[in-house]
Write a sequence for this structure.
């Protein structure tokens, strides 16, 4: 979920879908096919360096240029393309501000001792045998309570990455567990904007949607927990002997105290009381800066010529705290706001591509083509899933992956006598949760940037997220819990 907006800010009624009758399905697919080819070449053959560090960003812009050329040949005005690009960029202004604050949060939470304290106590409580399934459960609980997968990752998720890394667990597995739990909670929380948006698009009410969604979501998360329990038994970790050394190094470097947990607790409480994420995270940064000055004066003195400079550097640029344990040196580093620039540029370039694709009518044309081949009930569910997955990839925004199929497929579900909660559930099972699996989607870019783990590293381990579409198709194929409006 992009918790940068409240439901009232999503403008459900004003969301328009641009149709272009001049555009054929093959023309609509040209930018998509070429974009996928360029990205595949860059990832699999050029090691992501075909255009240097910002290869994916350049490729998305090239894809947008190709889409614009297709638009020129189909009588689409440049002003319309620019308008849609501007609307897309404007829509991610708050997420970009959140990303900057998350970078500042990571830096200040490091120098204040908040993250080291989480790692210190977490190493003593979470054993390797239960770490992965426990991470799923912890993140699920926090996400249900806050309605925010983004807040969950930026607080508990960062801490779990640190603890698991110290235990020797691969970061891809940890991130997969964090994301699986966070998105389960996101889907099932009545506070989540996407959980409100999906039933609004389909024409059902919130709590009917949540109850009906539980039929596919609960089995999926149970399978996810079983899978992580099995993984926990197969991985090799550093063992308890090494933990004592890690704990000693942390204790020698930082002033560790349970009082430090007041900072993350304050952020979570603010979110629970529906404080705007920008305000909650901003308070988290300021409070951590105060705690750094009070509890970690020696750390600040070692980072800069004076304490204020050390705090400002932690907020804006890199911070590296050196301990006598090499394993902790990589863990206790943060990039501040500067470390989020790559992710922010990726989101902006994705919004340019998605805006032009929307302006030329490509998104509408592709969705209609899927709808036209949905002749059976299962075909209708499958077309909805494919549409959501495609829009998460093409439009790079999970809101569009819910809104466009929701509007396009609503009448088709009614015509087949299917209750609207079938559509709302499918939108969530395939639109909300898969957004994090696309590197250039706003959600994928955010989670990767916040957790410091690439999408390619956690993709396989984000079990709940990629399993959810298969679960909803399985239920559709066997006609399990497919509620009818009328008996046919």
């Amino acid at each position: 979920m992009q918790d940068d907006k409240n439901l009232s800010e999503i403008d459900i009624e004003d969301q328009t879908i641009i149709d272009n009758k001049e555009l054929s399905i093959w023309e609509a697919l040209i930018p998509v096919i070429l974009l996928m080819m360029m990205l595949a070449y860059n990832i699999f053959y050029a090691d992501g360096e075909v255009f240097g560090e910002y290869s994916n960003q350049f490729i998305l812009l090239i894809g947008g240029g190709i889409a614009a050329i297709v638009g020129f040949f189909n009588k689409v005005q440049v002003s319309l393309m620019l308008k849609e690009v501007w609307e897309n960029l404007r829509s991610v202004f708050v997420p970009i501000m959140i990303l900057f604050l998350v970078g500042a949060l990571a830096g200040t939470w490091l120098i204040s001792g908040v993250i080291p304290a989480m790692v210190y106590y977490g190493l003593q409580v979470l054993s390797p045998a239960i770490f992965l399934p426990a991470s799923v459960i912890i993140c699920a609980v926090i996400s249900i309570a806050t309605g925010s997968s983004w807040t969950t990752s930026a607080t508990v998720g960062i801490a779990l990455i640190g603890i698991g890394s110290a235990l020797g667990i691969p970061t891809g597995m940890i991130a997969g567990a964090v994301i699986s739990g966070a998105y389960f909670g996101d889907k099932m929380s009545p506070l989540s904007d996407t959980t409100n948006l999906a039933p609004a698009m389909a024409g059902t009410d919130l709590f009917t949607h949540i109850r009906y969604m539980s039929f596919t979501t609960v089995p999926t998360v149970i399978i996810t927990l079983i899978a992580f329990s099995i993984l926990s038994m197969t991985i090799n970790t550093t063992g308890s002997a090494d933990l004592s050394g890690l704990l000693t190094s942390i204790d020698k470097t930082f002033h560790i105290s349970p009082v430090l947990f007041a900072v993350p607790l304050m952020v979570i409480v603010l979110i629970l009381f529906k404080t705007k994420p920008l305000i909650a995270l901003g308070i988290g940064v300021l409070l951590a800066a105060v705690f750094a000055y009070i509890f970690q004066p020696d750390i600040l003195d070692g980072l800069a010529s004076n304490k204020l400079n050390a705090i400002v550097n932690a907020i804006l640029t890199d911070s590296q705290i050196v301990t006598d344990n090499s394993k902790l040196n990589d863990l206790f580093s943060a990039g501040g706001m500067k470390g989020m620039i790559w992710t922010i540029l990726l989101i902006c370039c994705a919004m340019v591509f998605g805006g032009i694709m929307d302006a030329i009518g490509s998104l509408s044309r592709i969705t209609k083509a899927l709808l036209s081949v949905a002749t059976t009930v299962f075909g209708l569910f499958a077309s909805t899933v494919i549409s959501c997955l495609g829009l998460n990839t093409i439009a790079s925004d999970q809101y569009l992956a819910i809104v466009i199929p929701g509007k396009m497929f609503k009448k088709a579900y009614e015509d087949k006598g299917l209750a609207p909660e079938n559509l709302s559930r499918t939108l969530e099972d395939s639109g909300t949760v898969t957004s994090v699996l696309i590197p250039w989607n706003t959600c994928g870019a955010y989670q990767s940037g916040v957790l410091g783990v690439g999408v390619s590293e956690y993709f396989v381990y984000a079990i709940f997220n990629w399993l959810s579409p298969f679960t909803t198709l399985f239920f559709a194929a066997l006609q399990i819990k497919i509620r009818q409006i009328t008996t046919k």
Notes: Residues 40 and 324 are 42 Å apart (CA to CA).
